[in-house]
Amino acid sequence: MADLQVKRSILLVGAAISLVGCTTTKSPPSAPAYVPRVREITVTTVPLLVKEQQGVFPFLAKDFGKGGVLEGKEVYAFSPSTIVVVEGDTIHFTFINPEDDDHSFVLPDLAVPLPPQQTTRVTYIAKRRGIYPFLCAIQKHLPMMSGQLIVLAGTTMAE
Fold it and tell me: What angle do CA 42, 46, 49 make, to 5 degrees?
């Protein structure tokens, strides 16, 4: 009798293993592929601390004066300073420079002069994911006038 129970147990276990081996697992449904988009992005050059503000903020006279921490410099920024797009997106940049100073917008594979008191339009394609620094190449505006372009992988996007 014990032999018969052992044989039945072995047969049941064998059958269960066979059934498990025959089942198929369903893959989770795949997310739809990201379709690159056209994005309209406006970037403005913004003065933060410039020598013209000395009349409003008298303490800046020392900073912009000889030997001051801002001697020969001016503090500008890009607004926004962080731009997020997706790999493959086409970016229609509109750069607004309301200042009376020259600026530029420089990425590793793009350089755009930004003349004073003008609007400049440029098209750029975000080809590869990653984080790319951008800056103004005017020496006296460095290192403050900078930012980053963040290009996300299309596979990380849900529609």
Answer: 165
